[in-house]
């Protein structure tokens, strides 16, 4: 009988006990994971330390960059005159910005350097090379470093690691300038012209007078103060706002009154006349966002008032009879049309910023003569005067940050591209009558000896002239490009004065009179009333003498009136000169720090 016991397999030789193998494997893996975790943690701490050092270097570089204002390295390091020394500025900035940084107390250094346009600077052995002590830097390099203690140094074998970061800052320069100023050349003639212009736009009733203009011309108002009065946080917000013109003027009036300006009530009066018209303040003063110069800029109160009124008016042509009364001429019927498009003449920003003058078109037409005569011949006349001025454009090309001394002036360079400016006056005279006074006849015959010496029936006793003649005088200024260099205190002596890029005022004169039409007919008679035959040369001689008298007795007074009462005051108000414009600067803002590396 076979049993099942014989069927059982005998144990194999290779079998052994494997209990505990998993624990060994886990121990090995855990050791590796712990090492990797230690590296990861310490690497993270080192990365966080780099981030903190970069943030610290950036903030300190900005703080140190605010010191760059044209002073030399030695002056920056020494401080004085209310300015901190470089060391104290550095210490204060590090203390203010390093409270939450990882690692040991940071080591921070600042180097005053010359930074190129691409953000690079000279270095030697990895260390920034500072400018000479007598040289003014335009940038600062800040290095910030610390030592980070590693949490698991016992495992990794490295107990700490050092980190260092750097930042480069330059002082971004900005400045404000304007082309022309209503206040700058204000006098009796220009204010007499400005008054009917502004009252014409306002519809009358503003009661502006010379004393009012003068009071405003002597006052300046801060753009930041106006922004604060309107509840805005910055000048950038102000200039980007579309705001009610009346509200804007009331805010300016409140600021002026707080500063003690007695004429500020005029702004309230004009605000009421403007009603609910909205204006874009960027059309009055334009500025690049963040331009430090704008935050400290002021604007003349009269320029602010005038600019606001003109901007509120827009591009409408106006009929302003008051302008015609500025011409002390006999006769009636003069009509005027004015188009004065105000531009943002004031600009705040960096190099490349641009501003423009106003664009102008003025015409005066109508009868100017009644019951007058030329050499005894009755005349009537009409005139047509046109004045045009395209906008001149100024571009800020350089900003000079100095100490405002003769040896180290502050200033700006503005390239002015003048607009085409022109003026013309036409005088059309109609004559119909005879002159028989001996003196008048002799004046008409002056230089024509063949007639003066004639006797008997050929002796001319009277001359009859009929027909009309047109005379025209034109002055013009083509577009030119010139640079206004403002260097305070050398030229001009202070920031209240401007620099002109032109050579003088455009004026009309009779040096180049042209005849636009001539239908005159001359008839000569002797003492018996019989016609005296005249050849073409003799008739032309009489007409030439007549035109000379028309020019001296009629055209000259007309041009004098136009020049003195319209042309020169108007160009003064706009700041226009022959071949350029008046440029006014404001102290540059030289300490607006900017990170460039």
Give a written overview of the molecule.
The chain has about 600 residues and is α+β, with helices and mostly antiparallel strands. The protein folds into three domains: about 25-160, no CATH class; about 180-315, no CATH class; about 315-580, no CATH class. About 35% of the residues lie in helices and about 30% in strands. The chain is built from 16 helices and 27 strands. Strands 1, 4, 5, 9, 12, 21, 25, 26 and 27 form a nine-stranded mixed beta sheet that branches. Strands 11, 14, 15, 18, 19, 22, 23 and 24 form an eight-stranded antiparallel beta sheet that branches. Strands 13-16-17-20 form a four-stranded antiparallel beta sheet, with no helix packed on it. Helix 7 (about 225-230) crosses helix 9 (about 245-260) and helix 9 runs antiparallel to helix 12 (about 300-315). The longest helix is centred in the N-terminal third of the chain and has 45 residues, at about 20-65. The mean pLDDT is about 80.
């Amino acid at each position: 009988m076979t049993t099942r016991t014989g069927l059982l397999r005998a144990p194999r030789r290779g079998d052994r006990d494997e209990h505990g193998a998993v624990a060994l494997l886990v121990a090995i893996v855990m050791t590796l994971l712990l090492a990797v975790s230690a590296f990861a943690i310490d690497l993270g701490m080192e990365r966080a330390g780099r981030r903190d050092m970069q943030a610290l270097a950036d903030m300190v570089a900005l703080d140190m960059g605010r010191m760059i204002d044209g002073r030399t390295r030695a002056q920056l390091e020494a401080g004085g005159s209310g300015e901190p020394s470089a060391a104290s500025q550095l210490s204060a900035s590090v203390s203010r910005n390093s409270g939450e940084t990882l690692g040991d107390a940071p080591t921070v250094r600042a180097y005053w350097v010359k930074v190129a346009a691409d953000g690079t600077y000279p270095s030697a052995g990895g260390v920034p090379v500072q400018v000479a002590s007598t040289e003014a830097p335009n940038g600062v390099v800040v290095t910030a470093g610390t030592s980070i203690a590693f949490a698991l140094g016992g495992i990794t074998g490295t107990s700490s690691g050092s980190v260092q970061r750097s930042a480069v800052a330059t002082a971004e320069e900005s400045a404000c300038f304007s082309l022309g100023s209503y206040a700058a050349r204000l006098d009796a003639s220009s204010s007499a012209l400005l008054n009917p212009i502004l009252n014409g736009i306002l519809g009358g009733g503003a009661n502006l007078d010379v004393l009012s203009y003068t009071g405003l011309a002597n006052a300046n108002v801060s753009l930041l103060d106006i922004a604060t009065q309107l509840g805005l946080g910055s000048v950038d917000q102000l200039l980007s706002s579309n705001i009610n013109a009346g509200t804007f003027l009331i805010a300016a009036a409140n600021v002026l009154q707080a500063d003690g300006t007695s004429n500020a009530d005029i702004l309230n009066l004009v605000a009421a006349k403007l009603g609910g018209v909205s204006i874009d303040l960027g059309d009055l003063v334009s500025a690049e966002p963040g331009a430090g110069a704008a935050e400290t800029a002021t604007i003349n109160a009269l320029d602010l008032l005038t600019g606001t009124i003109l901007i509120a008016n827009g591009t409408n042509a106006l009929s302003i009879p008051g302008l015609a009364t500025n011409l002390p001429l006999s006769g009636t019927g003069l009509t005027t049309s004015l188009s004065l498009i105000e531009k943002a003449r004031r600009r705040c920003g960096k190099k490349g910023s641009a501003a423009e003058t106003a664009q102008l078109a003025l015409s005066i037409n109508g009868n100017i003569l009644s019951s007058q005569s030329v050499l005894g011949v009755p005349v009537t006349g009409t005139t047509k005067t046109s004045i045009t001025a395209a906008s001149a454009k100024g571009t800020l090309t350089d900003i000079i940050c100095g100490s405002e001394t003769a040896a180290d002036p502050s200033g700006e360079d503005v390239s002015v591209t003048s607009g085409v400016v022109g003026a013309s006056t036409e005088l059309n005279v109609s004559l119909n009558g005879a002159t028989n006074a001996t003196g008048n006849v002799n004046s008409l015959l002056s230089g024509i000896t063949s007639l003066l010496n004639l006797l008997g029936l050929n002796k001319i006793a009277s001359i009859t002239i009929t027909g009309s003649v047109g005379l025209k005088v034109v002055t013009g200024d083509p577009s030119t490009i010139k640079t206004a260099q403002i260097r305070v205190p050398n030229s001009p002596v202070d920031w209240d004065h401007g620099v002109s890029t032109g050579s003088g005022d455009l004026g009309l004169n009779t040096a180049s009179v042209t005849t636009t039409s001539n239908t005159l007919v001359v008839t000569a008679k002797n003492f018996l009333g019989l016609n005296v035959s005249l050849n073409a040369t003799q008739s032309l001689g009489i007409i030439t003498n007549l035109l000379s008298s028309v020019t001296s007795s009629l055209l000259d007074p007309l041009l004098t009136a136009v020049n003195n009462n319209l042309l020169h005051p108007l160009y003064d108000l706009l700041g226009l000169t022959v071949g350029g414009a008046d440029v006014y600067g404001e102290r540059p803002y030289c300490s607006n720090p900017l990170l460039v590396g």
